[in-house]
Specification:
Layout lengths: L9 E4 L2 E4 L5 H46 L6 H17 L17 H63 L9 E3 L1 H6 L4 H17 L1 H20 L5 H23 L3 E2 L5 E5 L2 E5 L9 E3 L3 H20 L4 H27 L1 H5 L2 H46 L10
Antiparallel strand pairs: 1-2, 3-7, 4-5, 5-6
Helix pairs in contact: 1-2, 1-3, 1-11, 2-3, 3-8, 3-9, 3-11, 5-8, 5-11, 6-7, 6-9, 6-11, 7-11, 8-11, 9-11
């Protein structure tokens, strides 16, 4: 999500330097704040999703060991070693101490000691799983404060972006003459938003449309997180499976809403794309810039139109904070779900009845929903407004760069 910066402060016109006061420096500064806050949230979200995957890996392994205890056989030395190594590696990756869960492999050598040693190993792994979900819970508790901070940066950036767009629009209205050339080179413009007015205008309008329409997706995300929390909480009472139907329906509702709004996908800033994957909105990163770095010099009407589009995009981006209450509810649901996951570990490992009732599968699906949809909260909150600011900033850079091409060398008087 790093954006190449290219401020226009000194322009060369007709072989002479003329100082041109750019409207973009303040926009660049504010956009950098948004980008850094967004990157932090995206990185921590990825770490949270990895942690949930790791917890489920250990859960699956612990379940195999628990089954062996119930069958009165226990696990052998090789299986115990794999469990021990996997647990230690995952704990080390997540910064958790005491990853070893097997005191001595020799304990798994005889039939008499295997069952007891396996039971101890299962209990130790369960403790590690609870520690991982404690970290997941802390992630969601911290996420909200980070989102609030991001919204403050977004508001500041959107305000500055709108002001800069208005200023450039006024300057564009006073342009006279013809451009010195039909094109100029700019990698950040060409690869970020397009090569001509039509491409840029479409991209800015698509950003605006998606920003205005994406609200209902947040409401559906809240429903999924609430249903997932209820499934995991019900596991403590052995009633997880009956709650699964509500989770399934809420996920279907999210998929339908996302498909209705996103459709076949929307091209965004820097070659990124918003699409629907497994019923959830996904934002793919753009690839490395390829192709021509030349962009067509904008005409006066095109400059004015792009500035007007950026003004509307800035307004929509600032209004994006209206989803804040819905986002907060979703985050709160994820905190409750993570907390319930900590206490469901022991309940799910106690009796075989839970497994036969489908509780393990129900909770596993709910945990995946918390990870995936919880991660989507961060991505939806971060990706779109951050890319809006970057797209708007680069569009204004395009306008400012085009204005440069209309400069003429002033004729000297005798």
């Amino acid at each position: 999500m790093r954006i190449r910066q290219n401020r226009l402060s000194l322009e060369e016109i007709g072989g002479e330097e003329e100082v041109v006061v750019s409207v973009l420096p303040e926009v660049e500064e504010a956009a950098t704040d948004v980008e850094e806050a967004a990157t932090d949230i995206v990185d921590q979200t990825a770490a949270m999703e990895d942690a949930v995957d790791d917890a489920e890996t250990l859960t699956d392994m612990a379940e195999v060991a628990a089954d062996a205890v119930e069958e009165g056989t226990g696990i052998d030395e090789n299986t115990a070693e794999v469990l021990d190594i996997a647990t230690e590696a995952i704990c080390a990756k997540l910064g958790l101490s005491g990853g070893r869960v097997v005191a001595s492999l020799e304990s798994f050598g005889s039939t008499n000691s295997k069952v007891a040693a396996t039971r101890i190993a299962v209990e130790s792994v369960s403790d590690r799983i609870k520690e991982i979900w404690t970290k997941v819970k802390e992630f969601f508790k911290n996420l909200w404060s980070k989102i609030v901070g991001l919204y403050e940066y977004i508001t500041s950036s959107a305000t500055r972006l709108q002001s800069a767009a208005k200023s450039l629009k006024e300057k564009a209205a006073s342009i006279e003459g013809s451009p010195k050339q039909a094109k100029f080179k700019s990698e950040s413009i060409a690869h970020g938003i397009g090569h001509d007015a039509a491409q840029v205008s479409k991209l800015i309008k698509d950003h605006h449309k998606l920003t205005m329409e994406i609200g209902p997706i947040f409401s559906k995300v809240e429903e999924v997180t609430k249903a997932a929390e209820e499934v995991i909480t019900a596991a403590k009472e052995g009633k997880a499976a009956p709650k699964l139907e509500a989770l399934t329906k809420s996920k279907e509702g999210l998929a339908a809403a996302a498909t209705s709004i996103i459709g076949q996908g929307v091209a965004l800033y820097g070659g990124a794309k918003a699409s629907v994957s497994n019923g959830e909105v996904a934002f793919s990163r753009g690839g490395e810039g390829k192709g021509s770095e030349e962009v067509a010099v904008l005409t006066k009407p095109q400059m004015e139109e792009i500035c007007a589009d950026v003004i509307e995009l800035a307004k929509a981006t600032d209004a994006f904070k209206k989803v804040k209450n819905t986002v907060q509810k979703s985050v709160d649901n994820c905190v409750k779900a993570a907390d319930a996951a900590i206490y469901s570990v022991d309940a799910l490992s106690k009796t075989k009845d839970q497994k036969e009732a489908g509780a393990l599968e129900a909770v596993a699906q709910a945990k995946k929903a918390v990870s995936a949809v919880g991660g989507s909260i961060a991505k939806l909150t971060v990706a779109l407004p951050s890319m809006n600011i970057s797209a708007g900033k680069t569009a204004l850079r395009y306008v400012e760069g085009s204005m440069r091409e209309y400069g003429k060398k002033e004729e000297k008087k005798d």
